[in-house]
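retry 2 of 3: previous attempt timed out while embedding MRU. Reduced batch size to 1 and resubmitted. Inputs unchanged:
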Amino acid sequence: MTGVKAILFEDGKLHILDQTKLPLSEEYIEITTKEDIFEAIREMKVRGAPAIGVAAACGLYVSVKNFDENDIPRFKQKVRAVSKYIGTSRPTAVNLFWALRRMEERLTGFSGSVSEAKAVLKTEAQDIKEEDEQACLDMGKHGLTLLRPGMGILTHCNAGALAAARYGTCLSPIYLGTGQGYDFKVFADETRPALQGARLTAWELSKAGVDVTLICDNMASVVMKKGWIDAVLVGCDRMAANGDGANKIGTSAVAILAKEYGIPFYMFVPTSTIDMETETGENISIELRDGKEVSHMWYEKPMAPENIKVYNPSFDVTDNRYITAIITEKGVVYPPYKDNIRRLLEK
Ligand code: MRU
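retry 2 succeeded.
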């Protein structure tokens, strides 16, 4: 089992593992202000949908805990303003808005003192973190029922311990299975342009003793054709009510390839990532990031003509018809997704 922790929230203090520094160095940074947490999320020091939600909740608490304010309506107003600001850090992962809304709702109708309100926010942030840990563990157990010892598994981006409070979403069954001697052979797409596969997935899996092979994104078809892949496991940033799922750019291409080769494609989606207010994938807001991530970021010298136009969408949407099953903490969901997701959430 992995011991990697992306977020530490202890004694009301928040530290996050700066993922922009991985795999070269493991550095935790303290978050104390709304600007700190905004920047950490925006710059992907903390990233991955569940981790963003947990970090935002804890970040909201640490940003307001020292407010010198005794008037509860004014305190609540300030909390809402900070929450709104943190919510503008990234647009696609719905966990960000889900967690901030949960924090704000705890103060709806609250009429105690400001210091009591601060304690309520601290407890809620802690609950959000602990619930995410449990959800990841449960997704791992459900996911493992779909896998067999010795399987070849392809994953894209990083939906591991670094992307959640603990264990990860789609890497959770890999950790659980490895602990039971399943001997998986994992292939990690490097995941251009931010290289979450190379820098993060390869790092955390190899650290945990999992057999992992790094490939470029454009090699997925080859390893599938060779028969080395028995299942594709990916995470999700926002799932619409009809089962369309936004995840890291390139995920939909992997899903289409998997269908061609008859390989099951499993999307791991905690219920905090399901957005019933978004009807289909068409309505999911896709983050556009700085073109320099494509033309400059990992090169010693710029590898594109100066001022070349770059299109850099950070996510894409996988049509529900390419998803074999959705794995949530409440169980595995099969098509038809529109009805079955609604039923699952009603459970
Ligand atoms: O841009 P990122 O690194 O935040 O994107 C992360 C992903 O796309 C993950 O696959 C997704 O958030 C699920 S994490 C459990």
